[in-house]
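FIELD: query
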Amino acid sequence: MIFLSITILTSVLIIISFKVFNILDVSVNQAITFNYLFGFIYGLVFREDNHSMNQVIDSDWLIPSIFIGFVFILGFFLFSKSAVKAGVSITAVSAKMSVIIPVMAGFLLFGDSISTLKVAGIGLALLSFYFIFKKGENERINYKYIILPLSLLLVSGLNDSLVKYMEHNYLTDNILLFLTFVFLSAFIFGLVFSLSNSKSRQNLISYKGVLGGFLLGTFNFWNAWAFIRSMNIFESSMLFPTVNVSVVSISAFAGLLFFKEKLKLINWIGIFMAVIAILLISLENGN
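FIELD: result
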């Protein structure tokens, strides 16, 4: 359970980081880009393998790691863009509803077991997202930008499914090395994006952005490491819903305690549903 706990904790800290960035006027794009640079450095420092560069080049996971790095940073940028254009609530729901993609992949590709309790738990988890993020009647979705949250849903689900596929087929004792190249790839793609954007190019680096990237990179790297380790232990149909509903619920409490975010009765109902969903899925898996 230690890896699952680290995954949930660091996921919550990532969400809190974005809230703090907004308060301290930290450039989100800079923090996202530099977070992958620091993640790459962590990978170099903590890797314990003795693979030579030739072995890395010949590895089956090198090309997929480059693509996954692109998907990683694309998901971050889509989230920040969608939050601004389409609204925070619909963006958050889209990001978390993406759990259905790796869950289905678990059933179809990785041989996850299917049972009434598990299906009920997954269904309740998906429904809980709607209630947790439900806001007042005054908040409206800007359908002009609906493509952004829909794209985020697909990219987030693809990201989780790709990582699970790599863990299932290629990763044994080289998880940290794999993550090192994923983060290097994501950093390069983020740098290219910033250099190609005239506004970002004029404000390419600031001390706040670098410090924010260090903080975010610390949480993000260990989150990815613990998440992949958790994939070795739990079925996808148990892991992804449990992590997502736990993160959503704890983040809601954190928002209430630290940022004075008010929760409506319907939000508390959603949190209660999320807890029940976790219990159903966990009972089925004997955890």
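FIELD: remark
The radius of gyration is 19 Å.
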